[in-house]
Design the sequence.
């Protein structure tokens, strides 16, 4: 190629999505495969969300509401805050990218964990930031080590709580102590994509913490518990001063009309969320029991996925593909001996365990 590409494009790590079922079946000429690779909701979408999509279809010749008025009003009601506390994005991913555009300049130091959600690295690379990643401790964010990497120039720290792919979460006391070590000029991004599944008693609700820490932004998504991953809606909650800057840099029509309608309706679908949480808890307990019985070490999870130590992660990932089971290979996160399995339906979970037992000769 004759063009000289940007430094950020040259450096960037490429996000590896979970393999779609259709792709695997096309490649191997097999059928009836299952995908437990992207932490999607095994119960599907919120039925109320889907109904709202059908109704909204007749309006798609119009541009969406660029300000997301109704969804923000509904979010404000749901969280007990004001619409000015919200920014909506094309998935949490886009909110993360907008945060980078809004606050990060080339050379700015940013801090996160080595095993953190890879999108923090990607958006930091896009902004040519100086990346400071702290090793994890017991597969968990080591907030003290992270605090040690922060300097007065540090613009942002990113914390996924629970973290993907490890599934671990930090408690409220540790999170508060960490934030209190920072200057008010360092933005703290707390990504709560899996908050509904977190079950440790001292799990902090970051959506409430920005009242005390105006440098904090909490992120949530409709992709997981609400089952709307394909529509792409996520949001940020923070002090209006932070929200205003993010809204300034985001695309004018970043969330489409079907997604806006679905998210607004899904927020009122407590039943779907609670059913999803129950099914997830049952699946989590099943994996814990089966891994213990088979002697497969695993990382206790606060999410809707679980990381198991299988020896050669790539080999087992590929072996599972041949069995028609798609999981996630996590070598790129620094865990070459593990695979990450999304918790599915009872039948899907049973099938992963049977295939794993077969491959590991257990
Ligand atoms: C899945 C996930 C998200 C959600 O991303 P969307 O763009 O909203 O689909 C955000 N953060 C983490 C850590 C995730 O694993």
Sequence:
């Amino acid at each position: 190629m004759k063009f000289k590409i940007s430094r950020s494009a040259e450096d960037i790590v490429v996000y590896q999505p979970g393999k779609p079922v259709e792709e695997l079946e096309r490649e191997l000429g097999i059928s009836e495969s299952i995908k437990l690779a992207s932490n999607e909701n095994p119960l599907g979408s919120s039925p109320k969300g889907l109904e709202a999509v059908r109704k909204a279809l007749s309006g798609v010749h119009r541009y969406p509401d660029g300000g997301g008025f109704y969804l923000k009003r509904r979010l404000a009601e749901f969280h007990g805050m004001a619409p000015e506390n919200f920014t909506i994005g094309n998935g949490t991913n886009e909110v993360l990218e907008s945060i980078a555009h809004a606050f990060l300049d080339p050379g700015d130091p940013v801090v996160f964990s080595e095993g953190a959600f890879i999108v923090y690295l990607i958006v930091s690379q896009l902004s040519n930031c100086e990346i400071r990643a702290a090793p994890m401790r017991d597969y968990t964010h080591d907030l003290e080590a992270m605090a040690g990497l922060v300097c007065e120039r540090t613009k942002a720290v990113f914390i996924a709580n629970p973290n993907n792919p490890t599934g671990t979460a930090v408690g409220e006391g540790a999170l508060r102590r960490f934030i209190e070590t920072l200057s008010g000029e360092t933005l703290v991004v707390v990504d709560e994509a899996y908050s509904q599944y977190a079950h440790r008693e001292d799990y902090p609700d970051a959506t409430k913490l920005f009242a005390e820490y105006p440098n904090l932004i909490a992120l949530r998504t409709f992709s997981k518990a609400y089952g709307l991953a394909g529509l792409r809606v996520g949001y940020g909650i923070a002090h209006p001063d932070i929200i205003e800057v993010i809204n300034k840099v985001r695309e004018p029509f970043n969330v489409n009309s079907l997604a806006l309608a679905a998210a607004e309706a899904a927020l009122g679908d407590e039943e779907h969320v609670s059913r999803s949480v129950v099914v997830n808890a049952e699946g989590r307990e099943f994996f814990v029991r089966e891994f213990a019985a088979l002697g497969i070490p695993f990382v206790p999870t606060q999410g809707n996925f679980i990381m198991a130590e299988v020896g050669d992660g790539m080999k087992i990932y590929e072996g599972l593909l041949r069995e028609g089971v798609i999981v996630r290979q996590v070598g790129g996160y620094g865990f070459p001996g593990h695979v990450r399995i999304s918790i599915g339906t009872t039948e899907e979970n049973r099938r992963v365990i049977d295939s794993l037992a077969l491959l590991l000769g257990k």
